[in-house]
Amino acid sequence: MGSTAAEPQATLMVDLIISLDGYASAEGWPGWWGLEGPEYLAWLDQEAAKDYTFLLGANTYRLMHGMSAQASADRSGFSEEEGSSLAGLAAVPKVVFSSSLREPLNWANSTLVSGNAVEAVRDMKRAGTGPMSTLGSISLARSLLVAGLVDAFRLVVFPVITGATGRERIYDGYPDVRLEMVQSRTFDGRLQLLEYVPTVLKGPPGSG
Questions:
Q1: Can you tell me the distance from the alpha carbon of 37 to that of 16, in angstroms, rounded to the nearest whole number?
Q2: In principle, which of 21, 160, 168, 201 could form an S-S bond with 176, CB 3.0–4.6 Å?
Q3: Domains of the chain
Q4: Could you report the per-residue pLDDT of 65-118, keeping only the tens digit for each?
Q5: Where is the Bacterial bifunctional deaminase-reductase C-terminal domain (predicted)?
């Protein structure tokens, strides 16, 4: 009897914005370091139209839920584009991994998973329910990468160095990773999109 082709698995992307020196944010700076432009914002709108399920941890859930609710109620604290993007997150399916949060979650279209995040995502990939992407959640993204579950690693690099004010170092605790570039693009003459296929290494090439 011939072998049966394996069912396609759902893909998982780690999606991050980052300063040149590896921070996810910086104290006192505006969102997107104040450097978002029309090309980048138009691309964000295109990405929002795709059917991603977003994966996030408890801290990111609390932060983004608060910002989304604020943007929906009163966008005076945000630019028009930022407010629209944040408010629109309520309609997107989200899976939240947390042992501290309790159901029901207040943010619409959010599902709580209190068990092991790596095993839960592994099961979600096997189920092939559709493309998934992380939303912030640096430690969750790192755990999924270490487990070999990440199919695409995408960065938008902002041209700032925030050595004095940077917060949330992205690469601390990462293993060695080889990256094969599959896409690059420049937005507004200053922001660089870099997309890779990652391969987690056991050590430097040739060390094994």
A1: 17
A2: 201
A3: 14-200 (3.40.430.10)
A4: 988 888 888 766 777 777 777 778 888 899 999 999 998 999 999 999 998 999
A5: 11-192
